[in-house]
Each structure stands twice: as C-alpha cells, then as structure tokens.
Amino acid sequence: MSTILKGIAASNGIAIAKAYRLVEPDLKVERKGIQNSEEETKRFEEAIRQSQSELETIRDHAKKELGEEKAAIFEAHLLVLSDPEMTGSIKDKIKNEKVNAEFALKETADMFVSMFENMDNEYMKERAADIRDVTKRVLAHLLGVELPNPSLIAEEVIIVAEDLTPSDTAQLNRQFVKGFTTDVGGRTSHSAIMSRSMEIPAVVGTKEATKEIQNGDLVIVDGINGEVHVNPVPEVIESYKDKAEQFAKEKAEWAKLKNEKTYSSDGHQVELVANIGTPKDIEGVINNGGEGVGLFRTEFLYMGRDQLPSEDEQFEAYKTVLEGLNGKPVVVRTLDIGGDKELPYLNLPKEMNPFLGFRAIRLCLEDQDLFRTQLRALLRASVYGNLKIMFPMIATINEFREAKAILEEEKEKLIQDGTKVSDSIEVGIMVEIPSTAVMADQFAKEVDFFSIGTNDLIQYTLAADRMNERISYLYQPYNPAILRLVKMVIDAAHKEGKWAGMCGEMAGDETAIPLLLGLGLDEFSMSATSILKARSLIKKLNRSKMEQLASEALNKRTTAEVVELVEKAVSSQYSH
Ligand code: PEP
Ligand code: MG
C-alpha cells in the first residue's frame, strides 16, 4: 500500500530508490532449555562463521573507502570472534547448562564486558565496546534478524533512520546514498545540515519513517516539499520523475551564475559563501559558485573516530581547504562540540541541558591542550590561503579575550620556533548567544568580524530547543525579535568598520534573504547547494527597497506579519 509521510524539507532535491533501514533490530534474548547441545553448538559456530565473513567484507570495504585507521576497529572485532577463551566459555555453557546459544552468548559476553569495563585501563575498556558490538552481530545471526551494515551498501538507497548522528551521516557513501529520511530532527539539526553539504535530498522529523518503511520498499524523498512517498503508485513515480527533471532544469539555469559575483538589481554587492564540514565538501563549494567558505565546522574532523585528531592531521585538513579555495576567504570555526554534537571519547558527563552546558569555547578554554593543538594546526596552515578564525558560542567579552590571547601565545611560540604564520589572519566570533548580540557594539571594538549563528541564536532567544519538533512553532527566524538582534549586530559591526556575516541556516532562506539584504548583511554563508539559487534571487532584488522592507519588518508584531510583508514585496519586485 502506498503511504505519504510529512516531514521537514531538510535538503533540496528529489530522490527515488529502495529503502535501507539504519535501525537496530530487536535483539532481546530469552533463556531456553535445549535437548541437543551438539546441534546448538553447531548453530552457534555457524553464526560465528557468518559474522566472520561479514566482518571481513566490512573491513576490506572500510579499508578501501575510509582508510586503514577506520578499518582497524573491524580487525579488533574479528579478533574477538576468534578468541578461544570467549567462544570456549560459550560452548561450555551450552553443553553444561543445556541452554540455547543466544542465552549462553549473552551471559558470557556480559560477563566479559563487565570485567573489561571495570579495569582501570583505557585499552581494556575499549575491548569491552568491541565485545558488545561483536555480540550484537552474532546474536543477529542466531536470531535470524538483519543488522544494518551501512558500509556494505552497494546499490542506490534511501536511508531510513530514527535519527542520524553527524558521524553516521559523515560515513554514508555518497555514491549510493541517494536520499534520507528520519523520524526526528529539524531543519537545523546537524543531520539536516550534513545532508545539505553532501547534496543529498532529505526529509527529517517525519515521526514515523522507521515505523512505516521496510527494507526494500520503494521510497521517494521529496526534499523540496518535505514529503516521503512509500511504495507510490506508478503515476506518482512518473510525476516525480518529471519534477526531478524540472528541478534539474532550474538548477541548470542557476548554474549559469556560477562564475558571477553577487549584485542586487541596483548594484549593491554581497558575498555568498558556503558552510562546510570536511575537506571533501570543497568540490561542492567550487561547483556551486561559492565565493569562499563562511563556516568550516571543524568538529566533524573530530567525529567518527575514537581519539582526538593530531595536530598534523588537522594541519593537513586545514591546508587542503585553504589551498582548495585558492586565496578565497575561509572562515574556520574552532571546535564547537556539545549540544547534539557529541564526542564519546572525551567522556564528558551527561548534563541536564547540554545545549546550555559545558561545550564549545567553554570546553576549549578549560581543556587548553585540545584548544592549543587546534590553534597551532590552524596557524601553521594559515600561509596556504586566506584564513579567518572564529570562536563559537562566545557569551562574554572575557571569553573572547581569553581565546584570542591563547591564539596570540601559540602564534608567538610558532614564530619563535621559526614556523611561518600569516600576519593577516582576521579573528572573529560567532554571535549566537543573545548576550553577545546585545553587546555587539562593545564586541565590535575588539573583533575583526561577526558571523551570526541564527541556528542557536533563535533557539536561545525564543528558548526553543532546535531539535524538538513539538515546539518547532517557536523556532521563528522571521520573528521581529530575531530581526532586531540581527540589525544590532550588523549596525554595530559597520559602525566600527568591520564586516558582518551570517552562517546560520537563515542566511540561505528565501524569505530571509530580502530582509537580510535590507539590513545590510555583508556575507551570507549557506549550504553550497543553496548558493546559486540565492544569487539568482538577490540579482532580482532592489537593495534600497529591501532597506525599506526591513525597517517595516522590524516594526511588525508577529512572524506571520513579517512573512506576509516579504512575500508581497518580493512578488512586486519580480513583476518589475
Ligand atoms: C549556528 O548556531 O547558527 C551555527 C551556524 O552553528 P551550528 O549550527 O553548528 O551550531
Ligand atoms: Mg551554533
């Protein structure tokens, strides 16, 4: 039967393919008595063999696609499987206690896990995690259920998941993953942001994708309207093929603007730059006519691994991006971990309010080794392009001063050691906490630039968790309160001769762009795939008229009034 799910359009485009569920199956185990322990042992051995061959395939694949380091984890899993101490204990249990293999496996594995976990040794603790993972795989074979193996995907698929962590998303193979849909999340959740930078159509927050979609179902992800069609009738498939074609045509039209600068119809210039998560995203920036990078979210370099990236590794990543952009500006944000971006290996305690907690610059100022390593890598890379550094989640002037002082110290040390460092690195901050927006006039005297992070600024101003779809009605980019804060920041920057950009998702939003142009925003940083569309929109807008529009919007009382005002103004601009 065909079904339609509604969700949030997270990434533009249309994808049609078979579903691949990235959902863990039910692996509950019951204790059952058995008659024939030999047969049961054989069943267990067969499950081990199947797991082994599966893991070998995954390991080889990971080696090829992700490198030796990422593949090592599967090597460790294979070692667990071939450990006679563990498999021996399980077989003994089956034989002596006459219990089913699932139960014997689970009991034995739990015992080993708790033994390793209680050791005061990081290496042993990691072995506990390996055993847990391997146990799941063998159990799945015994229970006859399928465990998802995303790294084995070898045909075009639509990923269906409850949520995708940023590291899940980063590991998806762009060649085969044509689209994705999730139960939870909003437009600014990081899975959505990643889908845009990977140029994969996505619909998030459908609430029931994992309930309604089975492996192999034919799925259409309509990332333009926020709809997911499950097993659609042939007419719907045909109409979506037409839509996809239409979308491709529009894209071709925008593509003509690729090498142009961005001017409004009355000749006011702005800069359109891209948000990226990894050096792999550079290609998308260039192909989509980006005039630089307005936000490099460096936390993705720290994810999907089990230890911090070294200074050299980071240096290489930053150098690749700077060289790839060939002298165009690259704004790199220092580590912004926390909120929905976790780093399990930092072993940070769970907090009641992670979005308001020990995160980003707060963590970096305390764990200075981690911070200094990143800063040194950045400073060393600075000679390879046009680097600007910005600090995330700045709430007070002192935080900025402290972070900048650490940066200066590291710079001085490197120079003393004879390392070349660029002497024209601009240092700015993200404005994503209301206190900083309100104090922008003071900050502007000390920083080189602002980049407004509306994803967080909106959530903190309206006290509405950006991940929570139940209160998504409060997540209001066009609320006059937000527009007023944005204006304060831009005006404060200009008064001190500094520039103001925006790297929150609002910067690429069609309804927001006319307002932001009118408010005087200098730099718009968005997912690369939104750039050409934004350029084509700005070309049609008259800057002076947008100034009037913005000042009217600031005096509206509701979001709805603002949206209505913009829609009227834009349609009348188009008709001229
Ligand atoms: C923001 O908060 O607007 C932002 C760009 O940062 P992030 O989405 O990574 O929190
Ligand atoms: Mg933020």
Describe the SSE topology:
Layout (H helix, E strand, L loop, with lengths): L2 E4 L1 E4 L2 E8 L15 H30 L1 H14 L2 H14 L3 H17 L4 H22 L13 E5 L4 H6 L5 E6 L7 H8 L4 E3 L4 H4 L5 E5 L4 E4 L3 H22 L6 E2 L5 E8 L5 H6 L5 E5 L13 H14 L4 E5 L26 H7 L1 H14 L4 E6 L5 H20 L9 E6 L2 H5 L1 H4 L5 E4 L1 H8 L18 H16 L3 E4 L9 H8 L3 E5 L3 H10 L2 H12 L4 H16 L2
Parallel strand pairs: 3-4, 4-5, 5-6, 10-11, 10-17, 11-12, 12-13, 13-14, 14-15, 15-16, 16-17
Antiparallel strand pairs: 1-8, 2-6, 3-7, 7-8, 9-10
Helix pairs in contact: 1-2, 1-5, 2-5, 3-4, 4-5, 11-13, 12-13, 13-14, 19-21, 21-22
The structure holds phosphoenolpyruvate and magnesium ion (MG).
The site of phosphoenolpyruvate has 11 residues, from β11 and α17.
Describe the structure.
- This protein is an alpha/beta fold and 576 residues long.
- The protein folds into 3 domains: 3-23 and 150-243, 3-Layer(bba) Sandwich (Glucose Oxidase, domain 1); 37-143, Enzyme I, Chain A, domain 2 (Orthogonal Bundle); 262-575, TIM Barrel, CATH 3.20.20.
- Helices cover 48% and strands 15% of the residues.
- The chain contains 22 helices and 17 strands.
- The protein has helices spanning 37-66, 68-81, 84-97, 101-117, 122-143, 166-171, 190-197, 209-212, 234-255, 282-287, 311-324, 360-366, 368-381, 397-416, 434-438, 440-443, 454-461, 480-495, 512-519, 531-540, 543-554, 559-574, and strands spanning 3-6, 8-11, 14-21, 157-161, 177-182, 202-204, 218-222, 227-230, 262-263, 269-276, 293-297, 329-333, 386-391, 426-431, 449-452, 499-502, 523-527.
- The strands form 2 sheets. Strands 1-8-7-3-4-5-6-2 form an 8-stranded mixed beta sheet. Strands 10-11-12-13-14-15-16-17 form an 8-stranded parallel beta barrel, surrounded by 5 helices.
- β9 (262-263) and β10 form a beta hairpin.
- α4 runs antiparallel to α5.
- The mean pLDDT is 92.
- Bound molecules: phosphoenolpyruvate (PEP) and magnesium ion.
